[in-house]
Design goal:
The complex is a heterodimer.
Chain A lengths: L2 H22 L5 H22 L11 H24 L15 H23 L5 H7 L1 H9 L4 E2 L2 H6 L5 E2 L9 H13 L4 H25 L4 H12 L2 H8 L5 H21 L2 H17 L3 H16 L2 H23 L5 H10 L3 H21 L6 H11 L1 H6 L1 H23 L3 H5 L4 H6 L2 H10 L6 H13 L5
Parallel strand pairs in A: 1-2
Helix pairs in contact in A: 1-2, 1-3, 1-8, 1-13, 2-8, 2-9, 2-13, 4-9, 4-10, 4-11, 6-8, 8-9, 9-10, 9-11, 9-12, 10-23, 12-13, 12-14, 12-23, 13-14, 14-20, 17-20, 20-23
Chain B lengths: L1 H5 L23 H35 L12 E5 L4 E4 L1 E5 L2 E6 L6 E5 L5 E2 L5 E7 L5 E9 L2 E10 L7 E4 L9 E11 L13 E9 L3 H13 L24 H20 L3 H38 L4 H6 L4 H14 L7 E6 L2 H11 L3 E4 L1 H4 L11 E6 L5 E3 L4 E4 L2 E10 L3 E6 L5
Parallel strand pairs in B: 13-14, 13-15
Antiparallel strand pairs in B: 1-12, 2-5, 3-4, 4-12, 5-11, 6-11, 7-10, 7-12, 8-9, 8-11, 15-19, 16-17, 17-18, 18-19
The chains are: A mainly alpha, B alpha+beta.
């Protein structure tokens, strides 16, 4: 292991955690540190990936030195600012010294077993899942082995190119942040190595768990319940598979959505600007990871805007939005002029009769994926039960109702995608329905966990602001 | 509100009710009523145990699709020892009553079969019980059979691999298991898209195979095998766990636990007349317990899958591990393409075509860092190319690309390209596309 490789890990962590600390304040307690490190790594990693974009057709050996020279001072500057700003500030660190229940230690032990299996699988196996070698990690392999960060273009442009410096691929137009991040680590390692690249997914899993733990603790969830939440998240089989068989982008989307939601919750409950900016940063990174990230960005940004609207606008939006949504769906299904052709143009063209005939099978397949296969343990049952048992908590907490609205919109988007578009065939074949569900599962789990929060300071802190928001929060 | 929480969710016992008129249920006949209540109370727990036993037996019966009128033990068993089978593909020796398979045949496949003295009625023997020794995780196991109505057709069904214990499989879950069976056997071959075919084989033994008439034991055994059998990684694993195992499935423990826990608690709440709070807390505890049980099962399955990964890759340096790819034939083809590429400028465009999308994309991946692209990108859109620099076209195992040597033109569907043949073998052809638009 070289110094360059260590630096390659250090820079995203230092930069991302520096930005998080800058926006949310200097971490004081262990959960604070876990939140800053976890969410900071995810943020820093993607920012590092994006930082490779302006380099052009650079030599891969020059990537780490050129980017480090910019990002490392930024990271140091961010942390220096955080530490200087926090000098003399009142320390509010109050952390439970109560001993943990042995069962909680068992859960941590089980998480360690999960982690060991995933880490060993990643380090040993060459790139395995289809989209890893066919799409997401094909570009960085080409860059690394070719020695240059070549541009990927469409097939016709590539075939007409006489310079030989352009490349193409079936997925040439996919976002490149993940590919560039993989190249960042591979170039620091000095060779293309699937284990080195796959290790990013393991770090993502660990960062997600740390970020969620710190996030829910900061929002007032008790320590033992937070550990149960993290165990539940870390033990979900399909998430384990996406780490062990590294190379898909869905877990990155899931982490960004969950961390954005946690920051947004903090912003809602404290009224502070920093967490809101952080939530916006996480949300803005979504389209850089995967094409459907743009949809999640629109949904998240829309709900965030809704939460900040004056009361009378929210009232209008609450009435108009479902009407417009239902109207568009009806226009699409009835093939009404203007709207249906417009939807056709964006790729939603389909025989609606066929779609509706397939709808029961699609819904059945989706339900099977969620409730009857091995993907999610009893997560969806537990979520429904939590909603029933803790519905009172949901009614009392405007911030949770806003988060619930976003998740409801997300679920509606997935439902519409599979039932009302030709994407339904991917639900029937089980190839996409669970992977797209995976993208909101961590946020759903955070939502469910927050319903088990005892009524402590969060509501009290937010009381003045949320009192205004409460009457029309969904 | 308090009354609501103290009241029974399903009111079978008025004493626990928080209903306003609950107190009026007491009357002059109190001593006799109290006695009957005590008697009922004593009966509650045994009744609960009986009801829960019936519920879970019923659930397991439903999940295993056990015939209601079937006996627990099978009435008939057709047993064949390993050495009753003869080798069709590969090589084997008799080892006592066992058949020890020590080599594979063509296509890295081994096949053992048995022709019964008289045709078997498939419907009478829906359960297959089989035992192997040292069956390797590198191989996929199939059951093969012929029917009297289609003697030339071989029907195949993938089986859960058997470990140290006997395994069971419900043959009635496959539509082809019907009519009269005239031959049956087992086939073993490298797990597709996971294990390199040339290093997959390890010796193993067939101990015995039995066909059972319908029975609860056979059906429950098939359920147990489905729930606990080794499931290798598959390309489907990142999308759905369950359908990634290539045999017909029974309802999963996730579903059985969900239904069972909910129904158990409903029965318990009704019988014990507890409050909503008790019901909610008990359900939460039950879900936590169920989650832990499923997680332990998943960790076992994950560890099982990981054993194969360690078997193939552990203890080897990265360079050696990187060369152990499941698609041996494609790796070899890419090596032959590289030999040709060594004689052309490094920036030459290379286009790959094959009949299977997997082959196209894997060849592209193996050929990196060549400036390579999949032909599917243009073959699918039906549009003509605007301009084309000279390029190499690699055609792998795809007879739809035809080459007219006299006209020096390669054709696919309605598209034709001026080309020269540079290389050709059984599966691979390489052409130089001359660069002019067709």
């Amino acid at each position: 292991m070289s110094v360059a490789y260590l630096v390659a890990w250090l820079i995203p962590l230092a930069l991302g955690s520096g930005i998080v600390a800058l926006l949310e304040g200097r971490p004081r307690t262990p959960p604070d540190w876990m939140r800053v490190a976890g969410s900071g790594f995810v943020l820093g990693a993607l920012v590092t990936g994006l930082a490779l974009a302006p380099l052009g057709r650079v030599d891969v050996d020059a990537i780490v030195p050129r980017v480090a020279v910019v990002l490392l001072p930024l990271a140091i500057g961010a942390w220096a600012w955080v530490l200087l700003r926090a000098r003399g500030a009142t320390v509010r660190a109050v952390e439970s010294k109560r001993r943990m229940h042995p069962l909680i230690w068992c859960l941590i032990g089980l998480l360690v077993v999960h982690a060991w299996l995933m880490a060993d699988e990643i380090l040993l196996r060459p790139m395995y899942p289809w989209d890893a070698w066919a799409a997401w990690l094909m570009k960085p392999k080409a860059w690394m082995l070719g020695g240059h960060l070549d541009a990927f273009v469409g097939f016709d442009d590539w075939l007409a190119d006489a310079t030989g410096t352009l490349r193409t691929a079936q997925s040439w137009n996919y976002p490149e942040a993940l590919g560039r991040l993989a190249l960042w680590f591979a170039s620091a390692w000095g060779d293309w190595n699937a284990g080195v690249v796959g290790a990013i997914w393991f770090a993502l899993w660990a960062a997600l768990l740390a970020g969620v733990y710190g996030g829910v603790r900061t929002l007032g969830l008790a320590r033992d319940r937070s550990i149960v939440t993290v165990y539940a998240l870390g033990s979900l089989p399909l998430i384990n598979v996406h780490v062990a068989l590294a190379g898909y982008a869905d877990l990155w989307i899931a982490a960004l959505i969950a961390l954005a939601c946690l920051s947004w919750m903090r912003a809602l409950e404290t009224g502070a600007r920093g967490p809101l900016v952080l939530a916006a940063l996480f949300a803005l990174l979504l389209p850089a990871v995967k094409l459907e990230g743009a949809i999640w960005l629109v949904l998240l940004a829309g709900t965030m805007l809704y939460a900040r609207m004056p009361l009378r606008f929210r009232r209008v939006a609450l009435v108009l939005a479902p009407l417009i949504g239902a109207g568009v769906v009806l226009a699409y299904l009835l093939r009404m002029p203007l709207i249906a052709p417009a939807l056709d143009r964006i790729g939603l063209s389909a025989d609606t009769d066929v779609l509706l005939a397939h709808a029961p099978a699609v819904i059945g397949a989706a339900a099977e994926g969620l409730f009857a296969q091995y993907n999610w343990h009893l997560f969806w049952i537990a979520l429904v039960l939590t909603l029933v048992v803790r519905f009172g908590k949901l009614k009392q907490s405007p911030s949770l109702r806003f988060l619930g609205l976003f998740l409801l919109l997300g679920s509606a988007f997935l439902f519409a995608l599979f039932v009302l578009t030709p994407a339904g065939k991917w639900a029937e074949s089980y190839t996409a329905v669970n992977r797209l569900s995976l993208q909101i599962v961590p946020a759903m789990l955070v939502f469910a966990a927050m319903l088990w929060r005892e009524p402590v300071r969060a509501e009290a802190i937010a009381a003045p602001r949320m009192a205004e928001a409460a009457p029309l929060a969904p | 509100m308090l009354q609501r929480f103290l009241s029974s969710p399903i009111l079978l016992d008025g004493r626990m009710s928080g209903a306003p008129d609950a107190s009026r249920s007491t009357s002059a006949a109190r001593p006799r009523k109290a006695e009957s209540h005590i008697a009922l109370r004593r009966l509650r727990v045994p009744a609960l145990i009986v009801l829960l036993s019936v519920l879970w037996m019923g659930l397991l019966g439903w999940a295993s699709q056990a015939p209601l009128n079937a006996p627990f033990q099978p009435a008939e068993r057709m047993r064949s020892a390993g050495n009753d089978f003869h080798v069709v593909l590969g090589a084997a020796v008799e080892n006592g009553k066992r058949l020890s398979i020590n080599a594979v045949g063509t296509d890295h496949m081994a096949l053992q079969s048995l022709a019964p003295a008289a045709p078997l009625d498939a419907a009478s023997f829906p359960v297959l019980r089989y035992r192997w020794q040292d069956f390797p995780r590198t191989l996929e196991l199939s059951f093969v059979f012929r029917r009297a109505d289609e003697p030339d057709d071989v029907h195949t069904v993938t089986l859960p691999p058997a470990g140290a214990y006997p395994a069971y499989f419900d043959l009635s879950s496959t539509k082809d298991w019907r009519g009269q069976i005239i031959e049956a056997g087992f086939a073993e071959f490298p797990t597709a898209q996971l294990v390199p075919a040339d290093i997959a084989f390890r010796p193993f033994s067939l101990i015995e195979a039995e066909l059972w008439s319908p029975s609860w034991r056979g059906s429950l055994g098939a359920l147990g095998t489905d729930w606990s059998a080794y499931r290798p990684w598959a390309l489907m694993s990142v999308s759905a766990l369950g359908p990634d195992a290539p045999w017909p499935h029974k309802p999963t423990p996730v579903l059985v636990l969900s239904i069972g826990l909910a129904a158990s608690l409903a029965i318990a709440a009704a019988l014990l007349a507890r409050s909503w709070t008790w019901l909610g807390l008990t359900l939460c505890t039950a879900i936590a317990g169920g989650w832990l049980a499923l997680d332990l099962r998943w960790l076992g399955e994950f560890a099982d899958r990981h054993v194969l990964t360690r078997e193939l890759y552990a203890g080897k340096p990265w360079r050696e591990r990187a060369s152990i790819e499941p698609d041996t034939a494609l790796v070899a083809a890419s090596a032959r393409v590289r030999d040709v590429l060594a004689r052309v400028p490094p920036s030459t465009h290379v286009v790959v075509a094959a009949s299977a999308a997997y082959d196209v994309l894997r060849l592209v991946y193996h050929l990196l860092p060549a400036n390579v692209a999949p032909m599917t990108t243009i073959a699918g859109n039906g549009e003509r190319l605007r301009a084309m620099q000279p390029a190499l076209l690699v055609v792998y195992d795809d007879p739809d690309w035809t080459f007219d040597a006299a006209a020096k033109r390669i054709t696919y569907a309605d598209d034709g390209y001026a080309a020269d043949l540079l290389f050709e073998d059984a599966t691979l052809r390489i052409f130089r596309l001359r660069g002019a638009s067709p």
